[in-house]
Write a structure and sequence with these properties.
The protein is α+β, with helices and mostly antiparallel strands. The chain contains eleven helices and eight strands.
Length: 304
């Protein structure tokens, strides 16, 4: 075999290479959420916002007639054949009936008869797809931006249940060092990540291979720690960072690049920092200066 494989379940892991651990590459990303870690899932509370209404009164707003009676007719035919009362408030319907309407009838069929506005006729036995499955299918298959945005209004962004928010596929997440896969390491705070690497015990052969990589990771995490960001996690979304945090991340990146002959203008780099972190920030700025750079700092904190 060309891959590592489990002889019992057949699970395989390809040759380990960098792209396997990148959620930006199809080779490593979760196939269900495309490496986003989140998925748009239909929210029943958005589909049926008022559970005091009956089905006949339009409780299912996603299927209310706008330009066509196709889906309302489908619902009426299904309720007729499955014995669901369309005049009972949604809140009072049996759970079995609610589940059928939301998730479909499985293999049970009903007779669907529909005459379109232009005389086209549908007359067939079919399974009821369910509101949730129908919205998911239309959202997935439509090429219309308008339709996609309309259907998105009935969805909530939730953590992907396949990768649990780690954004990688099962093969990537099955590779572990000291019991942790790359997704779990990314959820460590930077300070905790440094502690994990400091306590890492490897075999002599693995240590020789990993030494330069571990050193590089430690250096980069230390730069972030030294500018007062040891509480952040590597998986933190950039859009949730404050202006001060973003600036200090860029500062740490510049420190790690070892560039010289550069003029840096910093606007209140200590903003949001605890007093105890100011000394480490100043040391980092002095390190940039000592590399042969010029720094102009705009600061309102006299101690800094």
């Amino acid at each position: 075999s060309e891959f590592y494989a489990c002889p019992v379940c057949g699970f395989t892991v390809p040759e380990l290479e960098p792209r396997l651990f990148s959620f930006n590459a199809p080779f490593g990303s979760c196939p269900d959420c495309d490496g986003l870690g989140m998925k748009n899932e239909v929210d029943p509370d958005l589909v049926i916002p008022d559970d005091s209404k009956t089905l006949r009164e339009g409780a299912i707003v996603a299927w209310n007639p706008i330009s066509s009676n196709y889906y309302p007719t489908m619902l009426e035919c299904a309720c007729r054949d499955f014995g669901i009362d369309m005049d009972t408030p949604w809140a009072d319907l049996p759970e079995e009936h609610k589940n059928l309407i939301l998730n479909g009838s499985g293999k049970r069929e009903f007779h669907f008869h529909y005459v379109g506005d232009f005389g086209n006729v549908s007359d067939k036995d079919m399974v009821f797809p369910g509101i949730i499955n129908n919205i998911n299918r239309r959202f997935r298959e439509t090429s219309s931006d308008y339709t996609r945005e309309y259907l998105r209004g009935y969805m909530t962004e939730l953590t992907c249940t396949t990768c649990h928010g780690y954004r990688l596929n099962d093969q990537a997440l099955s590779v572990k060092i000291d019991g942790k896969h790359i997704g779990e390491f990314s959820n460590f705070a930077i300070g905790a990540g440094l502690d994990f690497l400091g306590q890492l015990i490897l075999t002599p052969n693995d240590e020789r291979i990993a030494r330069p990589i571990v050193k590089e990771i430690k250096d980069r995490l230390s730069f972030l720690k030294n500018v007062g960001l040891d509480y952040l996690t590597l998986s933190r979304a950039s859009g949730t960072l404050s202006g001060g945090e973003s600036q200090r991340i860029r500062l740490a990146t510049q420190i790690g690049s070892n560039l010289s002959g550069v003029l840096y203008i910093l606007d209140e780099p200590s903003i949001g920092l605890h007093q105890r972190d100011n000394d480490r920030l100043i040391e980092s700025l002095q390190k940039m200066r000592d590399l042969g750079n010029t720094l102009i700092v705009v600061e309102h904190d006299e101690d800094t």
